[in-house]
Amino acid sequence: MDPVKNPYAPGAGQRPPELAGRDRQLAAFDIVLERVARSRPERSVMLTGLRGVGKTVLLNQLRSAARTRGWGTGKLEARPDQELRRPLASALHMAVRSLAAEHRNPEQVDDFLGILKAFALRSTADKGMRDRWNPGIDVPAVTGRADSGDIEIDLVELLMEAAALVRDQGVGISVFIDEMQDLGAADISAICGACHELSQDAAPLIVVGAGLPHLPAVLTASKSYSERLFSYHRIDRLDRESADQALIAPAERENVEYSTEALDALYKKADGYPYFVQAYGKAAWDAAARSPISAEDVAVASPAAEEELAVGFFGSRYERATPAEREYMRAMADLSGDDGPVATSAVANELGRKPASLSPARDGLIKKGLIYSAERGTIGFTVPHFGRYLRGVQ
Q1: Are 151 and 184 in contact (CB under 8 A)?
Q2: With contact defined as beta carbons under 8 Å apart, do 331 and 375 qualify?
Q3: For the segment 305-340, what is each residue's pLDDT rounded down to a tens digit?
Q4: Taking a C-beta distance cutoff of 8 angstroms, is the pair 187, 180 a contact?
Q5: 238-317: which CATH architecture?
Q6: Over the stretch 120-140, which tens digit does the pLDDT of each residue have?
């Protein structure tokens, strides 16, 4: 098979050639956009799931849907070592710039940008750093709104001002936040508070977040009403029909087919996880001499796909862990059968240690995004099949 025509795309956040199995989430978001544009109250949206299930891909697709409707959109990726102000200011600046040319009142746009600049400049208590950093907004800062220094007060004021900018325009603004579980506690609290105000006011601005499975718990720990504040969508592995579609549809566009046995073998290997579907599909295409791609081609290709996953998907994460953290994860793998979740007390028993003595390793792994707290007293791997990989590591 011609490798140049290989349609599959195993990459972090890279859109697959066929976005299969996500029609329900896309349709639900279309309804949200339409309701918000009509000044109907609607909740912001949260996507949760393990790594490799396509959260970032879906987040980008939702953003594309909003832009198609003429909405202003901006996106940021949360990082544990970065406060929210600067990246959020950049995302909102991006969203407003895309709407500025169509806005009927340029002075109102400039006034908002001045407020946005003042918000951004409160991003650090170091005056020298503030003086050296420029948020790239070409209007003077407007003081007195969204610049108190209290992120929760400022974010509410800022997003309400942004919503007012488009309230009579028949469109809205959407802010997309990836890796949302990595935001600090104060920033999470501020987002919850702002979304609460926006929802009560039926304001034309929504936040769309994506994060690991424990994101709902992070939000609820910040504000008890968060469980009712957002519309949660759990993004999981693909069912058999959708996984087959993700393989068949791109191949058909290149006049290539799969045997039924090949599809059986590929689903067993990938287990429905979108990233794995793309990785095994790409390897099977490259290994096949002709159409239809057969089960034998899949068998030949599998070691190459598994080697690529071992290095780029699993190994890069494993290398970030300390020896104590690796020991903790191996115990998890031995107990979980594959991915977990498992009880923290069981891990302590497996290692013959007191649970308190393992807290530094557990907390370090959570901060590195390698494990998550599934519910009180339990933990699981953030990466599917990581337990299986660990049991093969010598």
Answers
A1: no
A2: no
A3: 999 999 888 988 899 999 999 999 999 999 876 666
A4: no
A5: Orthogonal Bundle (1.10)
A6: 988 754 455 455 556 678 788
